[in-house]
Amino acid sequence: MKKILSLFGLLFIFGGAQAAMPAPDELVRAVTGEVLEIVRADDAIRNGDPARIAALVDEKVLPHFNFRRMTMLAVGRDWRQASPAQQDRLVEAFRTLLVRTYSNALTQYRDQTIAFRPLRAAATDTTVQVRTEVQQPGAQPIGIDYMLERSDNGWKVFDVVVAGVSLVTNYRGTFAQEIRSGGIDGLIRSLEARNAELASGAAS
Amino acid sequence: MNEKPVIQLRQLAVAACAALLLGGCASTPRNPDDPLEGYNRAMFSFNEGLDKAVVRPAAQVYEHVAPKPVKIGVGNFFSNLADPWIGLNNMLQGKPGAAFSDWMRFLFNSTWGFLGLLDIASEAGLPKHDEDFGQTLAVWGVGEGAYVVLPFFGPRTVRDAAATPVDMAGDSAWRADHVRTRNSFTALRLTHVRAGLLGADRTLEESTFDKYAYVRDFYLQQRRFKVHDGNPPLEYEDFDAAAPRLGGVAAAAADAAVERLELIDPTAAGPMAAAPVSPQR
Q1: Is the ipTM here above 0.90?
Q2: CATH architecture, range A2-203
Q3: Which residues on A lie below 8 Å from B240 (Cβ)?
Q4: What is the pTM of this model?
Q5: Which of A126, B159, B233, B278 is the most buried (most CB within 10 A)?
């Protein structure tokens, strides 16, 4: 009986920990709000200062993303053929590419408003879709949806869906093609070469 | 300046044909959505050249010169002219409510909205829709066919390429009788639309090492999304072998799902529907 009671106690502790975890829609709303406020106030970021953007993204945005899951979704079924070492390099290279893309997009932000659509999810869901809309006068609103997954240390974004297009699975065609012609290592090489090229500023 | 992309296109087309022939001998399976990849890549480069030489510079000038209220007005004006045709497509797709909403939009915006320069209908709670004849054909059950890049028009599926002339005939902005007015309208609309995409240029350029494939997959994903009116069945598989196996039938079903790729398109009767899942494990 005592054992059962202590088990109940444990359950409550875990239940309490989960309740303390911010809800996925609140998380997205808080992070979006905070980041955009910083961008709005910071001319250096809007003028594309790479160091400033990187610092902002590193601190505020990246902790909420699950890049391993993202890479796995982008690579698709070939993921299983990759060795753990190859998987780690893929995650690292894809992460670098995605972070750069996201940082670029951030410098484009001007005066659009972000509307949050009501969350339709049950309390027990482990995967939810937080739907937002970017509105600007004279143009149709663009939907940006965040797919989040519950983990032990909070909700983590594993996909961003822009205007109905999953930015993660959109890489699948390209990646599959690379893997067909050069194997997993070929894909790693292509990604790393692209990152190096962009880092040296050759592609801009 | 004008000659160059054409010559380039010819060379590319020759190279592409050669690649296509060689590809036919090789045993690597091509992307099933894109059997015309060789031709498409050549045409994509041609369109890119055209964009770089003419369309993007014009859009950049427009973006700089036109004051914001003018740009908003231009956007609203063309959006309004398209609404009757959007409404008709909604009707043809069996959505009379949406159709009447589109026609009400046109009525409101054309009168109270000063010939469509203001979009008061959106503020009054009549949302803008996005329909065209390609989507109507999809609702009627026409498959999308191969991916094809058209000169000037850009990415299409065969179905949407076939629908394009119908859309042009149906959309009032293309129908102005006065040829010069029509041409100016077309140029202004194209420039306006392109200007709206200038911000995405760098992102697109840097986001991948194969821009052609990225644009293709983006287009195809987005068309499927539009056909389903924004409710596509996004499904995410777990490809991590380290993940706990469900065992038995569930694992077999998961494997079958993995074999079948990621985003499940219910319009395509895939092997999932046909092949029974065999629990041999």
Answers
A1: no
A2: Roll (3.10)
A3: 72, 79
A4: 0.78
A5: B159
